[in-house]
Amino acid sequence: MAVVGWLETDDILDRWPDAPDDPELSAILTAAHEQCDAYAPPLETGAEPTESMRLAQLLQAQHLWARKRAGNGEGFGPEGYMVQTYPLVMESRALLRPKRGNPFLGVL
């Protein structure tokens, strides 16, 4: 069992069965962690990452892997009837920095 960023590789294989093999998996997880760590609010010293942070790293890794394999045209379905996928990077950002309600919305 190896820890890459906020995730353990054993846990990743359970959550992402189609993950690439090592060392490519480790490289993608490292890059995803670097991106997520730079975007997320800083953790207090000694604090454990939240489940949202772990999931964000996994989604970011899946996004990077999909873009590496297929470019920005990632989609599913027969040619001519492709359904474009929602960029997972937006989901991982939302997990790291959830949108808060605007306290002044509707006041004016």
Which key phrases capture this entry?
108 residues; mainly alpha; two-stranded antiparallel ribbon; two-stranded antiparallel sheet; 4 helices; flat
Notes on the structure:
This protein is mainly alpha-helical and about 110 residues long. It has one domain (about 5-95). Helix content is about 50%, strand content about 5%. It is built from 4 helices and 4 strands; from the N terminus they run ββαααββα. The strands form 2 sheets. A two-stranded antiparallel ribbon has the order 1-2.
Brief characterization of the structure:
The protein is mainly alpha-helical and 108 residues long. The chain has one domain (3-96).
Shape assignment: flat
Counting structural domains, the number is 1
Mean pLDDT: 81
Please bin the fraction of helical residues: 40-55%
Distance between the termini: 55 Å
Helix/strand/pairing class, anyone? mainly alpha
Beta-strand fraction estimate:
5-15%
User: How many alpha or pi helices?
Assistant: 4
Number of strands: 4
Main beta sheet strand tally, sense and closure: 2 strands, antiparallel
Spell out the helices and strands N to C: EEHHHEEH
Low-confidence stretches: none
What order do the strands of the largest sheet run in, or round the barrel if closed? 1-2
The value of Rg in angstroms is 16 Å
